[in-house]
Specification:
alpha+beta
Amino acid sequence: WNQIAADWRFMLAVGAGTGIVDDRLIATSMLLPQGERFAWIAMILVTAARQRQGLASELMHRCIARANDMGVIAGLDATAAGRQVYLPLGFRDIYPLTRWQADAPVDALVVGAPENGVRPLRADDLERVAEWDAKISGAPRRNLLAHLLGRCPERAFILEDGADVRGFVLARDGRLATQIGPLSAEDDDAAIALLRASLGAGSGSVFLDAGDHHGPLAEVLADAGFQEQRGYMRMLLGRDDPIDDPNRVFLIAGPELG
């Protein structure tokens, strides 16, 4: 797992965490409300010695019940194995994602002058970016955006056309690699320009979770030396149409953050 203490602190601050203890912590779950429309289920983890004892199912049902009490739609990003568990619970497929990883992206993607309109994202951009992002993500996420800007400010960029926001990218440090995302943009060219800027602003291993429906982005990643690590399926409980705008969501913040 790529999470570090900063991830857990943020999730516990904005969401509801549950733990199961038997002398020590043996299982966890998170429910992260995102506005008044939906809440994200994440971090359902069970220690190896206590798996297949129903703990994950108990935690999942607690999260679902809590979301129902709140009157919001539960969502999650499921692995292939998890999807088979969640489908009978009423979760429906929205769109597939792929985690890509690279130890060091090749020069073809990261070398070159910044694209016109791309510049570092600053704290005083947050209100404008959060307003634009809410139309795409379907939820107010200013707290999340501010948290991520503080994690890796050197990899945060905005793309503008005059006074209009056309895209942005954020990142965070991790235990195994830097996670790039979210990245939202008006089109493929804007997304690739932002990705180039973010990758070129740092070094080392990188993870990113991209929507499979963005074929040109996948081609660029493969050419740059990224490899597919695993797949996810974005799912919503009792709903089969997206809350976000998949056409403009290129990279998610991560399966634990939505």
